[in-house]
Each structure stands twice: as C-alpha cells, then as structure tokens.
Amino acid sequence: MEGQENSVGMSEVRIWAAHRMIAAVLLVCGIGYASAQPLSAAPGQARWRRWWIGSTLALAGAEALDVASSRGAQEANPLLRGAGGQFNTAKAIALKGVFTGGALLMEALALHHHHRADQFKMFATANTAGAAGLAAVAVHNFRVNSGAASLPSP
After folding, report:
1. pTM higher than 0.90
2. How far apart are CA 76 and CA 114, in angstroms?
3. Which of 128, 134, 104 is nearest to 48 (CA)?
C-alpha cells in the first residue's frame, strides 16, 4: 500500500513539473516574440514597450502567486475545485496558463502588427492592473489560509 501512495505522489510531482515547464516555455516564447519587434524612432514607444514587457512578467508572477496561495485550501470556484472541494493545482495552472497565456499572445500579435506607443500603453496598463488585482487576491488567500485574518490588528 505504501508503494502505491508513493507512486501517486510521484506522478503528481511530475504533472506539477510538466505544467510549470509548459508555462515557462510559453512565457519565454511570448516575451521573446515581443522583444524581437524593432524599436521605433518614437521616444515614448521604447518606454511603453519596456513597461509592457515588465507588466507581462508581473502578471505571470501574480498568477503563480495566486496559485501558490490557494494550494491545499477550500475553493469556491467550481472550475478550480477538485474532489472534496479542495483547490486543484493542476486545473488552475492549466486554466490560468491558457487564459493568461492566450491574452498575452494576442497582445504580442497585436503589438507586432501595430507598433504604436498608445497600444503598448493600453496593454501595459491592463496587465499591471490585472497583476495588482491578482496580487491582492493572493495576499488575502495567504492571510485566510494561515489564520492571520482572524487575528486582531495592533
């Protein structure tokens, strides 16, 4: 019986590692694709392009932080729930990877065809706002899961 538990645990570790690898490859490909764009002579465009690249990294990091903050906890979202109502890490990584990766790929394609500073600014602002929102959710999850939310504030 002990050998079966160990093999189940190892397969979960392999699945987790595969999901992380896929997410990392997609992120690197997206950033590499975006950075291959030629810089325009417009002085504001280079600044907004750098901010957009940073905002994609912030968004990916906030998504990872959100997943980490929910591991082992009860989940309200039925799409992210596993058996027993617990958070399902593999489902979350897959769904967040598809939706966030897809959105960032669409941004990269739009920016590749239209090298305008106002589009870099629009996408960078949206990504930054999304990253801030996800980071706030992750902080809340860490507090709730650690029991710190029930402690009185000083």
Report:
1. no
2. 40
3. 128
